[in-house]
Amino acid sequence: MPIIVNVDVMMAKRKMSLNELSEKVDITLSNLSILKTGKAKAVRFSTLEAICNALDCQPGDILEFREE
């Protein structure tokens, strides 16, 4: 898939664990893991907003488009 999810990169930059982000965003660990590993087929803007707020970043820091 040409859309790459960089949640793990931003979590590492902010030194934030999956559990901590899960609590801040109020999303289950399993759903956050699906998003983090790039297996998600969609993401709500409200979830993206909460992740950006928790990680103090922009949506472009989380999502990236790469040509296949």
TrEMBL record:
Gene3D superfamilies: lambda repressor-like DNA-binding domains. InterPro entries: Cro/C1-type_HTH, Lambda_DNA-bd_dom_sf. PROSITE patterns: HTH_CROC1. One of its GO terms (molecular function) is DNA binding. It comes from the Bacteria. Residues 13-62 form the HTH cro/C1-type domain. This is Helix-turn-helix transcriptional regulator. It comes from Marivirga salinarum.
